[in-house]
């Protein structure tokens, strides 16, 4: 490789100056699913790159551990155990000693270890060992190497050119033999020398199209321009020029509508070679089918805008406060793939949302009228796992599937045989973040996916629903120099992905963790968010595994979105809500890579995180505990299912503790909310503890808590209830438990979140992880004829160990709800949402308001087992004390009775009020709830079994 390939700063000789076992995830971590890396060319020790054959990756706590020796051997260069952390410092975990340390560079990647020395170098530089350790700013950026030895790099070194080479450091004994050698990790010096805030991607103006690519380690970059998505030969090959790590070229305006890929010549640590990597643009805004090439498309062009698009902000439903949000999680394909009222060509795609009279759209309209404000769409960016071109999909004969018994193994066998070749996947395996997924469009080539995505957003907004995009910035699908779906790791190898101390890629999110602590990774995330907000008018973002992103990045994201304005950007940035999974595990746990966006760290940020405490207390155990472990709504203590949880006193205690957890959650999971616990002590939410002694309450405001009882991960609400409850109760009773669980979420302070189908008793035939289980197990039926229960044993891979529990339940016809049960569930859910939005008291905006107005009764050691009694008080106009928020009701009492019998509860504090059952419940078709009563003279309430009753005091 000639020196001419080293761009504008050629490298010149510089004289040295004078002297796995299975990964047991945390109980609060959802069941990780989904990523199936493609085949990769080779394996190197310390690099988790797969094999020469496709394989299915499972999470492993030992996946990144290295057992390789640290001695100086040829294998040593396959690792990158030293860190070039700043212009002047290389950090390496080597012991104290007199050995001399040298930095080596090879333009053509010819370094090797032989005969006790490092050979093949173009440059050899002596490094000076320091005695004062790493500077504070380095420790803050790289806390996991805080104790490493610091070596000083000569100030005269041409670092800009060196980073384009294969690099290594070596320690030598007094006899001149190499004692240890390793490669270098470069993010620190790349951030210091090449952090960049200028244009990236394709930039359109009236006369030209310009391309910009950040690739400071590349030796050469070319763009291959194609007229169409499929033609073999490029019509033009253009050389990009580099300035300070950014490669660019100014092209002709007629490039718009063409396709391109980059050809990047770069040293790749996975192969120890200079590779010629062919890649899409990380800032792609359009793609050909299956992401083969990047489409040159101008998102500001009128040609890709539906009629009225620029004025959509004026049509968006009103949102006065984030506390008014309620979230409905939905998968694009689930919504319409099985809806016969949708034309076949629209089924499973964006355009299904644009129909006005389909069963699914009518259902969404009903939810919107009841109060649901936002539809949260599972990933809609370009992801792997589903071919974009529908004619490539494989299908299973539905009649054949329907012919098998409800507990048969046959259905799952047929589904899993084609699961990687059908049209279904949740999509948590990102390829490119900034382009809509092609398989949901009627044509994956050209701008069709852009136009149809915008039409979907427009249609949902017009029926009163804002749109949340599920973003997955914590990992990418592929890495290495060869994989078609590898993008970031081809452009700047070793930079975008978080690496362990050996240089292997961290995989705690399952595969290819990204590193938002690096400047240009963070920038890519922020730029992508802005693109979706401005160009697709997205109303909110849900962050997958948000805890693996740095808090700094999330705070910047919130600030960036908040700065967008209707006048300048065409969107109302302050109305964009962000939330995500604040789980704290893996290499980032306890801020191991910097302060991460975990539940506790987000206190005071105004960013929401999922509250797993209320979920686990309601259902019992955790998604990773014993499947028969009961909880508050599934019969704990009050209706035991036979699973041994200890003696009666222990189980009663468990119910009492669960009730405390739920009450903290109903008060928005506030850290400082004061309540009386089951022992009669006055405690804060942060003083109510989980089994591992971590606090239950962690939020500073209600908008930081997203309460939920089910989501796309793990079993559906109805399925988990059917699994945990005693076998001898009726399906009607299980349905009421489903209602009860959704009522707790709907009537809590904070932001309620519902999995699509919770309101229809949705079943996945007890599949705990349906990410790749096809349309069959994920079906939604908006005709309300079926809830999809009993369609066969769920797929073997994730469920086989539970088949002995699942099989008899699926086989028992008494478990299956009828249409009348489903219709009742839909009405019950609608009523709950209408009750939530009937009073602002259910949607208090500050922690102080919640503390002042929300009270829990039936607390302390003399409590009635299982009964939750919550009151919310309002003030009166012109009367000292609380301000008046609600013009209709001055006082509300919510009573939740999960037990199998009616309960009476009296409290002097609730005596002599003018309380009556909420009018919505009085007028419902639920005859059970209508039997709820209140006696003012005694302050006594009577609430039927498995019922949530809401009493209101009209003004």
Characterize the structure shown:
The protein has 955 residues and is of the alpha+beta class. Among the domains are: 76-189, Sandwich (Immunoglobulin-like); 195-304, Sandwich (Immunoglobulin-like); 610-761 and 817-954, TIM Barrel (Alpha-Beta Barrel). The protein contains 23 helices and 38 strands. Strand 14 (241-243) and strand 15 form a beta hairpin. The chain starts with 81 loop residues before the first strand and ends with a strand.
CATH H-level superfamily of the domain at 610-761 and 817-954: Glycosidases
Q: Which band does the percent of strand residues land in? A: 15-25%
Q: What are the low-pLDDT stretches, counting only 5+ consecutive residues below 50?
A: 1-69
Q: Give the distance, in angstroms, between the N- and C-terminal Cα atoms.
A: 84 Å
**CATH T-level topology of the domain at 610-761 and 817-954:** TIM Barrel
What is the CATH class designation of the domain at 610-761 and 817-954?
Alpha Beta
- The largest sheet has its strands arranged as 19-20-23-24-25-26-29-30
Number of strands: 38
Estimated radius of gyration = 30 Å
Family: Belongs to the glycosyl hydrolase 13 family.
GO biological process, one term: starch biosynthetic process
Domain Pullulanase N2: 80-192
Pfam families: CBM_48 (PF02922), Pullul_strch_C (PF11852), Pullulanase_N2 (PF17967)
């Amino acid at each position: 490789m000639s020196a001419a390939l080293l761009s504008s700063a050629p490298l010149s000789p510089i004289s040295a100056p004078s002297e796995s076992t299975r990964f047991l995830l945390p109980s609060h971590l959802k069941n990780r699913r989904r990523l199936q890396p493609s085949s990769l060319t080779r394996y190197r020790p310390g690099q988790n790159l797969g094999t020469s054959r496709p394989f299915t990756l499972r999470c492993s706590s030992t996946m990144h551990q290295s057992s390789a020796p640290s001695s100086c051997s040829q294998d040593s260069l396959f690792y990158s155990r030293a860190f070039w952390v700043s212009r002047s410092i290389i950090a390496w975990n080597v012991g104290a000693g007199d050995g001399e340390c040298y930095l080596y560079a090879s333009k053509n990647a010819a370094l090797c270890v032989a005969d006790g020395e490092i050979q093949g170098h173009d440059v050899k530089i002596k490094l000076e060992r320091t005695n004062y350790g790493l500077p504070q700013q380095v420790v803050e950026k790289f806390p996991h190497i805080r104790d490493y030895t610091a070596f000083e790099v000569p100030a005269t070194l041409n670092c800009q050119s060196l980073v384009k080479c294969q690099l290594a450091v070596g320690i030598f004994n007094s006899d001149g033999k190499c004692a240890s050698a390793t490669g270098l990790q470069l993010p620190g010096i790349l951030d210091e020398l090449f952090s960049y805030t200028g244009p990236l991607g394709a930039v359109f103006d009236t006369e030209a199209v310009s391309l910009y690519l950040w690739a400071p380690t590349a030796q050469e970059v070319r763009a291959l321009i194609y007229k169409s998505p499929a033609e073999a030969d490029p019509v033009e090959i253009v050389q990009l020029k580099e300035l300070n790590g950014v490669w660019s070229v100014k092209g002709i305006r007629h490039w718009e509508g063409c396709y391109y890929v980059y050809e990047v010549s770069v040293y790749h640590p996975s192969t120890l070679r200079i590779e010629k990597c062919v890649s899409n643009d990380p800032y792609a805004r359009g793609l050909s089918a299956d992401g083969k090439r990047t489409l040159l498309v101008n998102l500001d062009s009128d040609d890709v805008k539906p009629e009225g698009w620029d004025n959509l902000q004026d049509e968006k439903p009103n949102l006065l406060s984030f506390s008014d949000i309620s979230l409905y999680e939905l998968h694009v394909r689930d919504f319409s793939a099985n809806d016969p009222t949708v034309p076949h060509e629209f089924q499973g795609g964006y355009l299904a949302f644009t129909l006005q009279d389909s069963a699914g759209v009518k259902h969404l309209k009903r939810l919107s009228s009841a109060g649901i404000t936002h539809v949260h769409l599972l990933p809609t960016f370009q992801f792997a796992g589903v071919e974009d071109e529908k004619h490539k999909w494989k299908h299973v004969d539905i009649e054949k599937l329907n012919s098998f018994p409800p507990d048969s193994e046959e259905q799952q066998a047929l589904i899993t045989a084609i699961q990687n070749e059908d049209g279904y996947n949740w999509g948590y395996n990102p390829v490119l973040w900034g382009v809509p997924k092609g398989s949901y469009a009627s044509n994956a080539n050209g701008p069709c996916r852009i136009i149809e995505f915008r039409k979907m957003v427009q249609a949902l907004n017009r029926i009163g629903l804002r749109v949340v995009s599920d973003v997955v910035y914590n990992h990418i699908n592929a890495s290495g120099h060869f994989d078609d779906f590898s993008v970031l790791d081809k452009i700047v190898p070793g930079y975008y992905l978080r690496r362990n101390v050996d240089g292997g890629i961290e995989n705690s999110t399952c595969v290819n963790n990204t590193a938002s602590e690096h400047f240009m990774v963070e920038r890519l995330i922020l730029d992508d968010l802005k693109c979706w907000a401005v160009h697709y008018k997205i109303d909110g973002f849900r962050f997958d595994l948000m805890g693996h992103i740095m808090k700094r990045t999330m705070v910047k994201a919130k600030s960036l979105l908040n700065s967008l304005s209707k006048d300048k950007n065409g969107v109302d940035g302050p109305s964009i809500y962000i939330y995500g999974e604040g789980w704290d595990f893996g290499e980032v746990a306890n801020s191991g890579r910097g302060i991460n966006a975990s539940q506790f760290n987000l206190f005071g940020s105004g960013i929401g995180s999922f509250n797993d405490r209320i979920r686990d207390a309601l259902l019992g155990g955790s998604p990773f505990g014993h499947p028969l472990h009961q909880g508050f709504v599934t019969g704990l203590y009050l209706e035991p299912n036979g699973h041994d949880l200890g003696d009666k006193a222990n189980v009663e205690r468990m119910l009492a503790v669960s009730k405390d957890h739920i009450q903290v959650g109903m008060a928005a999971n506030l850290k400082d909310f004061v309540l009386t616990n089951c022992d009669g002590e006055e405690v804060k939410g942060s003083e109510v503890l989980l089994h591992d002694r971590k606090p239950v309450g962690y939020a500073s405001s209600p908008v930081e808590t997203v309460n939920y009882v089910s989501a796309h991960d793990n079993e559906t609400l109805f399925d988990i209830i059917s699994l945990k409850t005693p076998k001898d109760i009726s399906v009607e009773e299980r349905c009421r438990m489903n209602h009860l669980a959704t009522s707790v979420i709907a009537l809590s302070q904070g932001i309620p979140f519902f999995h699509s189908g919770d309101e229809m008793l949705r079943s996945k035939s007890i599949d705990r992880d349906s990410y790749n289980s096809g349309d069959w197990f994920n079906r939604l039926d908006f005709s309300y004829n079926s809830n999809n229960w009993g369609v066969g044993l769920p797929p073997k891979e994730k469920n086989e160990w539970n088949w002995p529990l699942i099989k008899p339940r699926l086989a028992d016809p008494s478990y299956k709800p009828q249409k009348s049960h489903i219709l009742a569930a839909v009405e019950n859910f609608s009523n709950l949402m209408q009750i939530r939005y009937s009073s602002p008291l259910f949607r208090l905006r500050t922690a102080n308001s919640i503390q002042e107005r929300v009270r829990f009764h039936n607390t302390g050691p003399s409590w009635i087992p299982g009964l939750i009694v919550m009151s919310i008080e309002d003030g009166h106009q012109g009367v000292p004390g609380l301000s008046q928020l609600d013009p209709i009701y001055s006082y509300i009492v919510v009573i939740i009775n999960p037990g199998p019998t009616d309960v009476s509860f009296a409290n002097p504090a609730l005596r002599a009020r003018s309380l009556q059952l909420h009018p919505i419940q009085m007028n419902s078709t639920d005859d059970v709830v209508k039997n709820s009563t209140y006696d003012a003279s005694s302050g006594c309430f009577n609430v039927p079994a498995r019922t949530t009753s809401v009493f209101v005091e009209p003004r």
